[in-house]
Amino acid sequence: MQTKKRRIITTILLVSAVTAFGLPVMAQSKAPAKIQAALFMKLLGFYTNLGGDPFTIHVVGAPDVAAHLKEFIGKNAGKATLKDVTEGSGPPSGKAQVVYVGSDPSSITAYCQSNKILSITGIPKFVSEGVTLGVGVENKKPKILLNLSSTKAEDVNWNPKILKVASTID
Fold first, then answer.
1. pLDDT tens by residue, 39-52
2. Comparing C-alpha atoms, which of 169, 149, 152, 166 is closest to residue 46?
3. Radius of gyration of the chain (CA)
4. C-alpha span between 72 and 91 (Å, rounded)
5. Contact criterion met (CB below 8 Å) for 166 and 147
6. Which of 4, 48, 62, 138 lies deepest, with the highest CB count within 10 Å?
7. What are the φ/ψ torsions at residue 156 (nearest 5 degrees)?
């Protein structure tokens, strides 16, 4: 009887850990840069902080993604227009409204949270490490990931419709 109770408790703890720590997010793979760029331009239409103003995306550690995002300069994301795409190995030197995280997220997420700038990534595991919005591929289909804690820390306002298309983690 004691063994049965232990198995039940172990199963409950395992299921809780998978849910709490977002382990299914880890199983996803990175989407190709061209698909990431197109998806992010669509998803930024849900980012109400942009309003109708022109905006800049700063890309850290992902020149392939930056190249594809540059193809969208002058195009709209919702009511806002992509004005510029900058690149670097760290936080932007100028003002950016969105930062793409393509390498170690720790210093970049801290920067984004303290400056209230939306962080995005195409590396699914980075969403569980503090990046707010991510895309990946699961079963050959795009997967949208949204970190609710980071959303709050970056003071991001979303159109609630994004919750219908995104998988969320706390």
1. 999 999 999 999 99
2. 166
3. 17
4. 21
5. no
6. 62
7. -85, 135
Task: For residue 17, tell me if it sits in a domain.
Answer: no
> What's the structural domain count of the chain?
1
pLDDT in tens, 76-105: 999 999 999 999 999 999 889 999 999 999
Phi, psi of 63 (to 5 degrees): -60, -30
Q: What is the DSSP letter of 32?
A: P
Helices 33-43 and 63-70 pack at an angle, to 10 degrees, of: 60
Tallying the residues shown for the chain, one arrives at: 170
Supply 52's token pair.
């109708």
Q: How far apart are CA 3 and CA 85, in angstroms?
A: 58
Q: Is residue 5 part of a domain?
A: no
Domain CATH for 67: 3.40.50
In a domain, 30, yes or no: yes
Q: Which domain holds residue 82?
A: 22-169
80 domain-assigned: yes
Per-residue pLDDT of 115-149, as tens digits, reads 999 999 999 999 999 999 999 999 889 999 999 99
